[in-house]
Amino acid sequence: MSRVYFTTPIYYVNAEPHIGHLYTTVLADTLKRFHKLMGDDVYFLTGTDEHGEKIAEVAARQGITPQELVDRVSGVFEGTWKQIGLDNDDFIRTTSVRHKQYVQEILQRVKDSGDIYFGEYKGLYCVGCERHMNLSELVDGKCPDHQVAPKEVKEENYFFRMGKYQQLLVDHIEKNPTWIRPERFRNEVLAFLKAPLDDLCISRPKTRLTWGIDLPFDDRFVTYVWFDALLNYPSALKRTKDGRDLFERYWPHCNHLIAKDILKTHAIYWPTMLMAAGLPLFKQIDVHGYWLSGETKMAKSLGNVVRPLAFDKRFEKEGGIESLRYFFFREMKFGQDAGFTYELFVERYNSDLANGLGNLLSRVASIAKKNLGGVVPGRRHTFGERESKVEEFAREVVERYPAYFEERQFHTAIEEIRKLLAVGDGYINDQEPWRLARDEAKRTDLERVLYTGLEVVRLAAILLSPIMPRKCAEILAFLGETRPLDGSIPFAELAAWGELRAGHGLGEVIPTFPRIDEKRLKDIAPANAEPGEPGGGAGSPTRQDLKPPKPEITIDDFGKIDLRVGVVRAAGEVEGARKLLRLEVDLGESKPRQIFAGIRAAYPDPSVLVGRRVVVVANLKPRQMKFGLSQGMVLAGHDENDTRLGTAMFVDGDLKPGDAVT
Ligand code: ME8
Q: Which residues line ligand 1 (CB under 6 A)?
């Protein structure tokens, strides 16, 4: 039995989870389920990263305290994972006492060993990344991930002697070729380490930022958020479970799962911190690529995200997140970027789940229902050459399957399972059980064929169970396979050919994966699209539903409307108003105007609007509403019934608050 400790990044709580966060968390969940299936001892941690400038800034913009913000959003993350049924063993918050104490303990230890010193920092800082940047990392003067120019900072701070550990780190990477996977990320880190490694600034003066963990040796400073956050991985293990010390048990088996955005912090800052603290290094980092929306990374700061729970609801009948989990592993080659669109999701769902797995199951089960009274037949001894071929193919797939998971070749594992299903399907087509059913003398043949078909489905469901745990459990229960998938029965036994239990009564045959009508995509996706979400916005070229144009006006009529550029300074929900957002919009006047806009449905996370330039009707007579005075109107798009989501218009270019729009 081997042991593994999987971690996801702990997510920033400046905005709510989207399917990028879901992917890494589902990855950990899937790997945990896979290892349990293999009989291994496995532990899975996720959580939230709650300190730092970014969080403090968002809280200030929303007019709430950082604590209020982090409590709310951390709750959304934890609640989302729970609702989806993820099997994490712990959820760490960096504002928890257990974590803070650990961070202070390590800081003191590193300080005592002489690896922390006081000095001055001067350079560039990207708040989005929460790290200092070199000029060479910028593209057109901006951080490539956040599209924002980093700010210049100069201040006295504490530094960690990171540079001291450079050679040790290079040696470790060279000696352990699979420590960072896939290889191209290992090469990237080694290339970065060719240049001298600077020391790391690990504090922030409280005169500028108070939202952080106090340095134990100087309370005029708080800890830099990455020095705090990375320590979550061991801090969460500083407890016992069933009387056993979790740190001792799991730390040496730690396997970090991250996307490439945080490779540098995990592959450089983190191991050098561990070395300085005298702690063993983690065992492995697996790095995945980005989920893209169009050409760009799906990111909360770019406002082009898909929300897990909204997705789950939208495709509830079709398995919701379970089907998305399948799509994740089918579509993303580990380490490379992959695109998410609803069209692609529906295409893969229909071809693989509705037509593939779902169809084979319902086809075979329906014939068994109709002709065998719904009882799983048992005719192993009559297996012929055709069945042996199917059996042999299945055995090979089962044999290769664990290695694909170990190597993170999920898409290949899925490809193999699809092949197995195709072999099963081809076998059924060739054997034509519906024809056999017409001839009483062929009853044994019919039983043999149906048994084989159902056995293929059982095996596919076992192999897919780490990826779609709930749906596969449903399929397996339907087939009478109720043995636990938690390692208590050896995998080799569960996945051996011929383990399908004869005599089980099949329940009612209902489609496990009903087909999604593509027309529904047209109706649903654009209507509920979030800003920038794939499928959103674009209208069809020949619309029949356009309103008739309003009567013509003269340019003088139009000139009466004072349109101005406004910058959204704050955006929040309005209690008791389902459709409204309360915006504070800067028009270059002495103070921002309060405007209530009916665009809430389009912005489930209103903070994405903050900092964006919108068009405001500045001379609209102020309107006293139940919630307060609305001083203008933000232009937004909506359909004739106001049922579609409105999207505020944004202004590009170098315009300032108050500039005219004509
Ligand atoms: O970086 N595609 O938090 P974060 C794939 N708090 N994965 C994505 C993704 C996308 N489009 N968007 C987000 C932080 N992710 C730090 C981590 S760890 C000690 C501190 C996932 O909220 C992916 O796992 O910005 C990525 O690494 C992580 O979310 C970044 O989350």
A: 9-12, 20-21, 23-24, 49, 229-230, 232, 258-259, 261-262, 290-291, 297-299
